[in-house]
What does this fold into?
Amino acid sequence: MTEMLSYDFMQRALLAAVLVGITAPAVGIYLVQRRQALMGDGIGHVALTGVGLGFIFQTSPVWMAVLVCVLGAIVMELVRSRGNNRGDIALAMLFYGGMACGKLLVSMSAQAGSGSLESYLWGSILTVSATGLATIAVLAAVVIAVTIGLRRQLFAICQDEEFARVTGIPVRLLNLLLAVMAAVTVTVAMRVVGLLLVSALMVVPVAAAQQLTRSFAATQAAAIALGITVAVAGVSGSYQADVPSGPAIVLLAIAVFALFSAIAAPLARRRHRTAADTGPEVCEVALPGQNTGQNTGQNAGQNTGLSAGPTGGRSAGRESDTAASQGLAQ
It folds into this structure.
């Protein structure tokens, strides 16, 4: 471990892994909540066009990928929001066209070579330069600020867009913002995880955290912690085994998911048995012919909330539902 940290490129790679481990699950939890787990994979296909443009114009492939990914993510969100029956075909053409165009541009560039393209497709710990690390840090800071700072609003649109719109939340703007943050996250992670595997780091830590947590805030915190752990461990393991960092990180994340799933099953059964042993609360009801006078004093305090009538009961129910929905995002 000490020998590994003595190299500058490994220090940069580990710092990049930490940033990617934070940003990918921070965005991925909203995509999972909206059942758009494969959105990151589609954006990764489009990002390859940006990499190819960067090679053609001999500029930073990361910033070109950011530009192309943002445009692609906006198009994806507009197609999704319209709910067109042929929208999936349009998205498929966008994904595959982006990947084909990227490969064509890379092959035409002066920097053409399997090695240069492989590092973007599968990730490479050797290609994180000081300038690249600074770029990753800036983009990661933006993603973290948006996903954490606007957690309540983003949670609301992921749960129920119609309800969020009624409450005055700018749903369309936040949908576009979330799509842009997903695009930025793909470009942040492509040097560490690779464009073909970045979606896994956005989804698998979230799915693993959901096995053991019960609230949105707890799931987000646990997913970020898992993302950092598997990213750092994967980069370290890839250095020791001399393999690409992306596959090592993803396989480690899947192993953690399998472990958490195995732990969650007996915990769920134990909670179920505890609830069954405790049993539901029993409401005492006096049958005809019984002396209800003895029970009046005992049940008066318990039935105070019910004596308010139908209106009071509905108000209490609404207050309880509101408190519960607010608690999920905390």
User: Anything to note?
Assistant: Residues 2-199 form a domain with the ABC transporter involved in vitamin B12 uptake, BtuC fold (CATH 1.10.3470.10). The longest helix spans residues 245-278. Confidence is low (pLDDT under 50) at residues 281-288, 292-328. The chain has 15 helices and no strands.
